[in-house]
Amino acid sequence: LRFDNQVRVVVFKSEVKGVFCAGADLKERAQMDDAEVGHFVKRLRNLMDEIAALPVPTIAAIDGYALGGGLELALACDLRVAASSAKMGLIETTRGLLPGAGGTQRLPRVIGIGLAKELIFTGRQIDGQEALSMGLVNHTVPQNSEGDAAYQRALALAKEILPQAPFAVKMGKLAINRGMEVDIASGMAIEGMCYAQNIPTRDRQEGMAAFREKRLPRFTGK
């Protein structure tokens, strides 16, 4: 996906009704020794980092349970859409663990330190409406009879992104992600570098021409 220039948006969904991702298989985990557990979690953390580093926007469609590593997967995405009946939580402390695939870092960056500590310390599960009120998800929708309401809303969100200039969207994502990790002066410099890369693109010229000619732009990603 990273190297496919035809990809504009990536939506993560489950093929299992009622479950987005239930997290680690604890029966499997119980068969591992300490070294194997450490290696497994390191690989999982690397996977989440790879998802977070995808250059195009990513959307998690949470139509059911997103627990432990499942919520960490959703947190690695740029945007999250949940069904109102979905259940989310970093439940690791209820199993004698702590989040190990990015949860302790990404959750506070999304909802703030206080709420993140509360959810991680208690291992509490919340539904889609609570997640929306905390800012954990961008949108919450009532579940439908097919059980894919969040996926349908995620597709609608993706279709809002698709017509926009692909390179500009990628640079916007890069500027936000890098800028959030530094002070604002450094962030402004990062924005400037991303903007400079966008100036010579054909899409920028097309956007200006479309505005002048009062028509919709036809972006190509170049």
TrEMBL record:
It comes from the Eukaryota. Keywords: Lyase. The keyword Signal does not apply. SUPFAM superfamilies: ClpP/crotonase. InterPro entries: ClpP/crotonase-like_dom_sf, Enoyl-CoA_hyd/isom_CS, Enoyl-CoA_hydra/iso, Enoyl-CoA_hydra_C. It holds the Pfam family ECH_1. One of its GO terms (molecular function) is enoyl-CoA hydratase activity. GO terms for biological process: fatty acid beta-oxidation. Belongs to the enoyl-CoA hydratase/isomerase family. This is ECHD2 protein. The gene is Echdc2.
